[in-house]
Amino acid sequence: MVLLGLIAVIVAIVLIIVRPGSSQGDEPDTTAATNGPATTEATEPATAIPTEATAADGDACAGKQIIVEAVTDKSSYEAGEQPQLSVTLTNIGKNVCVLNAGTSAQVFTITSGAEVYWQSTHCQVDPVDAEVSLTPGTPVSSSVPIVWDRTRSSAETCDGPREAVPAGGASYHLGVTVDGFESAADKQFLLY
């Protein structure tokens, strides 16, 4: 009996030293067991559920979902004709989205070269918010265009006369921002 007990103790000591299932003398590799499933679980939801799938009708519009287009009623204006400025918004996403398209969220800017000649917010009176739902694939345009009187603007020129901008075939560009979404391209037009 004593001999059997001694053999059992020796076998236990040998098993502790040798550690069956591990490499010779190396620590057991626990990283695969602990990190393997955690990594798989962390990456599967990110790849299995795309961001767009979580969008629902009525959510706020996202940047890649909206196209803003600056619009003028003509491409050139004779002396005395005043450009009519508007904007078209198109939802190219898959869900109805909502944004503020009111005058408080619109900025129309007219430039020539690097110089800003006029901006709709310089002397704006009573700006309003207007939440608009944009249906995918259905462009929405301004109902009433803004008429530009062909003068320079600044915050300091709201109460007095304004200087007329150069004409005679001068080229100008209209850019529009609505609720933080900017037109991808400016609309060019000429003044005579």
Characterise the protein shown here.
With 192 residues, this protein is of the alpha+beta class. The protein folds into 2 domains: 2-49, no CATH class; 59-191, Sandwich (Immunoglobulin-like), CATH 2.60.40.10. The chain contains 2 helices and 13 strands. The protein has helices at residues 2-18, 31-48; strands spanning 59-60, 66-72, 76-77, 84-91, 97-100, 106-112, 115-119, 131-134, 140-141, 146-147, 170-178, 181-182, 187-191. Strands 3, 6, 7, 11, 12 and 13 form a 6-stranded mixed β-sheet that branches. Strands 2, 4, 9 and 10 form a 4-stranded antiparallel β-sheet that branches. A 3-stranded mixed β-sheet has the order 1-5-8, with no helix packed on it. The radius of gyration is 34 Å and the shape is elongated. The protein starts with a helix and ends with a strand. Mean pLDDT is 82; it is low at 22-52.
- Topology pattern, helix = H, strand = E: HHEEEEEEEEEEEEE
Global mean pLDDT: 82
CATH topology of the largest domain: Immunoglobulin-like
**Rg computed from alpha carbons, rounded to a whole number of angstroms:** 34 Å
| Count of the separate structural domains | 2
Strand content: 25-35%
In whole angstroms, the N-to-C terminal distance is 117 Å
How many alpha or pi helices?
2
What is the percent of helical residues? 10-25%
